[in-house]
Every structure is written in C-alpha cells, then in structure tokens.
Design a protein that fits this description.
Radius of gyration of chain B: 19 Å
Strand content of chain A: 25-35%
Mean pLDDT of chain A: 90
Number of domains of chain B: 2
CATH topology of the largest domain in chain B: Rossmann fold
Number of helices of chain B: 10
Number of helices of chain A: 2
CATH superfamily of the largest domain in chain B: Aspartate/ornithine carbamoyltransferase
Strand order of the largest sheet of chain A: 2-3-1-4-5
CATH topology of the largest domain in chain A: Alpha-Beta Plaits
Number of strands of chain B: 9
CATH architecture of the largest domain in chain A: 2-Layer Sandwich
Number of strands of chain A: 9
Low-confidence stretches of chain B: none
Number of domains of chain A: 2
Low-confidence stretches of chain A: none
Strand content of chain B: 5-15%
Order of helices and strands of chain B: HEHEHEHEHEHEHEEHEHH
Helix content of chain A: 10-25%
CATH superfamily of the largest domain in chain A: Aspartate carbamoyltransferase regulatory subunit, N-terminal domain
Structural class of chain B: alpha/beta
Radius of gyration of chain A: 17 Å
Largest sheet of chain A: 5 strands, antiparallel
Oligomer: heterodimer
Amino acid sequence: MIPGKELRVHPIRDGTVIDHINAGQAMNVLKILGITGSSSAVISVAMNVSSQDIKYKDIVKIEDRELEDKEVDKISLISPNATINIIRDFGVADKHRVELPEMVESMVKCSNPNCISNTNEPVTSKFEVKKDPIRLRCIYCEHVIEENIAEHLI
Amino acid sequence: MTNDRRHIVSMKDFTRDEIDFILERAVTLETLARSGRSDILTGKILALLFYEPSTRTRMSFETAMLRLGGSVLNLGSKEASSIVKGETLADTIRVISTYSDAIVLRHPSEGSARMAAEFASVPIINGGDGAGHHPTQTLLDLYTIKKESHLDNLDIAIVGDLKYGRTVHSLAYALSLYGANITFVSPHQLKMPEQIKGDLKAMGARVSETENLDEVLDSVDVLYITRIQKERFPDPTEYNKVVGAYKITGEHFDSVREDMIIMHPLPRVYEIDSSVDNSPHARYFEQSFYGVPIRMALLTIVLGVDV
C-alpha cells in the first residue's frame, strides 16, 4: 500500500459519498439526513481529514441511499463546497458539487420568535439565500440568520 | 414609478424614483389634505384592520380616504370580531378582501403584512407589523424633510432607541437612497445594529455615531428624535439617566442652524420639553399632518387612480 494513501473506510457498492463537508459539520449532515443512533443504515463518517482544497474536511458515506434534492439543498446551507458522489456498483455514477439555492422553503425556522411564520398561520418559512458568507433573510420579517445555520434547520 | 404598485409592505421594496413619485403625488394632494373633499376615490372602500392600538396612523388613513371621497370600513374592537374565535389572519384577509378595495393592516407579528399580501385579492398597506416595518411613517418623514428642509445633501441626526425602533431602521434605509449624512445618537445599549450600519454604508449613506447629543446639534439640518422605552432598561435609574441626557429643551438651540428642524414620530413622552413646541425649529405636529397627503397619495397609487 502506498504510504499516506491507506483507506480509512472501505469503498461502498451502492449509496452516496458526501465529500468536502466543512470540518465539524458531519454530525449536522447526519441530522439533516435523519440518521440517528437507532437507524439501521450503514454509515461511515470521517472527520477533520486533510484536504487540498479546504485544509480539513469531513466525509460521510451512506450505503444504499441516494439523497433527495431537499436534503442536498440543506447540506449546501451548512457546507457550500460539499460534493455529492452517487455510487452504483462500486463506481461513481454521478458527481456534482452542491448548489446554493436562491430561495429555501420549509427548511429553516425563523429565529425571530415574533415572526408571522412562527405562528399558526398557514404559511411555511421562506428565506432568500445570499452567498459569501451565507446569509439567510426571512422573506416575511426580514430577520437575518448568518451564524449556526444548522441549529435552525427544520 | 407608475400606478401599478399593488402592495405597500416595506421601504426595501422601493427605489428612489418610486419614492420621489409618491412624494410628488403628495405635493399635488396637499391642499386637498388640509380641507375639502373630492370625488377621486368615490365608490371605493378602505378596510382598516388594526390588531393593535393606533391614533395617528388609523385616523390619518381615515381622513385621507374621506378627503378623497371614499369610504372606510373599521374592524372595530378585536373582542367583537372573529379574531377572538381564533380565526387566522390569512382567513380574515381573504374575507375582508371581498368587502373592500384596499386594506390597511396593523398587526403585532413581524412579517404579517408580507404574508397578508400573499392572501389578499386587494392591495395591502402595512400600517406597522410588530417591530418590523412602518413604511407610511417613513414616507411621511421623508415628505416632512422634503417640505420643511431638503432631501439632497442632508445632514441628519437620528436620536434615541436605534436598536429596536422600527421607524428609524426604515428611515435610515430610505435616507441612504438620497446619500444622506446620518449621525446616530444613542446610549450604548440602544446603538444601531452593526449589520444595518454596514448595509447603509454599502448603499451610499455617510454614517457616524456618538453617544453625545451636544456633539451634533450645531451641524445638522434635521434632528429626528425617537422615544426611548422604559422596558428596554432593567434598571430604572439607568433609564432615568439616559432619558435625561437625550431630552430636548429650549437650552439646546443657542448654536443650532437657523433652519434646523426637529422631528418626532410621536407620541412623545419625555423626549421633547413642551417649551420647544412654539420654537421655530419644531415640526413634529406638522409632520403628523403630512401623514394625510402621503396616505392620500398611496391610496390613489395602490388603487390605480390618476390624479
């Protein structure tokens, strides 16, 4: 085996590899995917791995599952450089970087307790997404979320 | 701007050209706002949906509609309406839309006017949404400055609760469209949020701040005073100290510009001594009146009527 190239986790036959996750965000990615200690899915998580592009990164591998668009959008909010690799029969069937949507709906809870979207009105939360750094602006009360976005994900 | 704007929700929806259009329309209507009645909006009904107390906003909208020949529909007390049965605002808006040609909404939740605009089949005018926006107040403030001072090359000091005050955020935003030189004067607990200051600078405003009112008095065209609310201070002694430091009295006018004007969105509590009322600098009661021509202008615009 070539020094420095040892495999930390085994390749998977089918599933998804989420790479280039911002270091420290892997657990939030699992939360987005609804993966808890009691789920039966086979998961591998690598944290604080050296990376040429972003110095340190996290990686999540999920066997036998491909992500839904909404899940990918949520991951983009906490890790805009993440890449999604779809694995089929040990090969990479598709690889793409997550894309920040311009607007997210029903994904983030407004942190303003007095916002109309936090009442019993028949509306879902909607946020405009600004890049560099990521800022979410509630389209109702215009409150801005720019820190700890993961905590506000629905 | 043309007559096609449907809802009046937030000042952030407006360009400078649109604001100028509204202010010009108000100039055209001001004589009528002072006395008389026209038939410009005859046959139109304005619903006033106020979930919170209001004197000036509600009554000036009512006056505006009556001067234009239209009629007004009032919600009355909340207790006598379906709101106490738990009806959602969305449902109320859908229903009132079928009774009226436009709706003025004041509601305690931020973002309520934006949501109402999604459900309404008639124009929504935001009459104040919690600590959010109050665009018709900002527009009447701009109109006052235009009439009683000048919007170009303006030096203005905005004084008081700049952290929580809903009117000052909208006003500062709108003034930045005119490249104003804005000085924020407040106690350190109530400073303008950094994020808003950054936005204002990015939009072209020149922004500075101080805790000392005396530093700016002799260099401004407009002194815009706001109320400092007691509940923002856990310690009443601290509140009393702050209120005293920002109170305007006749003694402040020795070195001010001759044409400096004092504005206040009212109601005032302790911020301006009543001895100032007869000073040539006081404009806050005239400012209140200007709510009528501005609201007349907005009503004609959202209802698509040329003047």
